[in-house]
Amino acid sequence: VPRIAKFQTAVDTSFFTPLQLQPRTSLSLTWNSFARWLSEYLVSFPELIGKEHVGAVIMSIGVRYFDDVRFFDCPVVDVSASVVALGGGSRLKLVTVLHSGQQRISEVTLLLCPVRVEEPTSLAARPSPLPPHLLERLSPDEQSDAKPERRVPRLLERIRTTGRPLGVGKSQFIVDRHLCEVADQWSFVELPCVCESSRNALAFEHLGAEPGLRHALDTRLERFDVELTKPYFSFDHGLINSQAYELEGVVYFVHELSSSGAVSAPRREPVGSARHGVVIETFGRADA
Amino acid sequence: MRLVVSGNLLRFTSFTKEMDAPGGTLGEALAGVCARFPSLKPVLLDDEGRVRAVHQLFLNGEQLPRGELEQRVGADDELAVITALAGG
């Protein structure tokens, strides 16, 4: 059985919306659970990056909400995290469960790509499997050859081929440092926030014509699924193209993340690939 | 040549996003920029003076293969340096 890192934290009001544990909070607690798992079973996060020259970038995110747990139901959040290395350490799968007493709040699955930090000041890095001396510290149950599931492409095709379009929108954001982590690279934890801004703008703009868009405002987010292709860095200009669909009573928001210019120079055309990833938000119960 | 830097490289160029980078070749132009911003040099170049593989170079929008520093450039050319990933 994969080893588990557990901790408990008292909630404060900023953890919640009126409807649910903030998706950002789910991701923040998840990333902290990874740090705790590392400290307990491998090395601390600073030691991993600073001494082992190993980091990890996020390839995919899956957040799924379960019981209807709100602020007044929930004095504490209990967090449990486990890690499995896939493909000889070329990927890491982190699964974090957040609960409160007997109530299961959410489960977050992150697919991580280990990287080798090539330069210690900028922390610039390249993909590289977990080094053997770290990999061998994982138990047999923490290593697998299973292929990681890719939910986003499958769901995206289904939504776009059979869903009814409700509206489109576009928004921009600047990756200021409050959206970044220690390497001046954007922090995935903030992704629900920038997507929500785009979603809200779309919903308010089209609400009169499509009353179903109110689900984006008055019901909780059920799932938050992401596939990322490259990171943003500090001061980049991000662009979000958002589309809303209805399918079998469920409302989906698809957010395509791109650069609005040549990274730090927004008036220019993008240099290299401008695509950074795709996010799908699900409102309403869906089994797919 | 014009040099455009971004993201996590900006703190090594005093947050200058675009700059003139005189020189007959890419290597000479980058060496001049590194002389102007000394803290950029170890971040951008390895011990043998090659651009580290963690950075991608785009000359007039086209990605260059690694090690193309002998390529001649003119005043109208533009080189963008982009860091692909970081380990934070």
Major sheet summary line of chain B: 5 strands, mixed
The end-to-end distance of chain B, rounded to whole angstroms, is: 32 Å
Task: Give the strand line-up of the largest sheet of chain B.
Answer: 2-1-5-3-4
User: Would you count the extended β strands of chain B for me?
Assistant: 5
Description:
The complex is a heterodimer of chains A (288) and B (88). Chain A has 288 residues and is of the alpha+beta class. Chain A is 21% helix and 37% strand. Chain A contains 6 helices and 12 strands. Chain A has helices at 23-41, 45-50, 132-135, 151-162, 191-206, 215-218; strands at residues 4-10, 54-65, 76-86, 91-100, 103-117, 125-127, 143-144, 164-174, 223-228, 237-247, 250-259, 275-283. In chain A, strands 1, 2, 3, 4, 5, 6, 7, 8, 9, 10, 11 and 12 form a 12-stranded mixed β-sheet that branches. In chain A, β3 (76-86) and β4 (91-100) form a beta hairpin. With 88 residues, chain B is an alpha+beta fold. A 5-stranded mixed β-sheet of chain B has the order 2-1-5-3-4, with no helix packed on it. In chain B, β3 and β4 form a beta hairpin. Chain B is globular, with a radius of gyration of 12 Å. The N and C termini of chain B lie far apart (32 Å). The chains are: A alpha+beta (288), B alpha+beta (88).
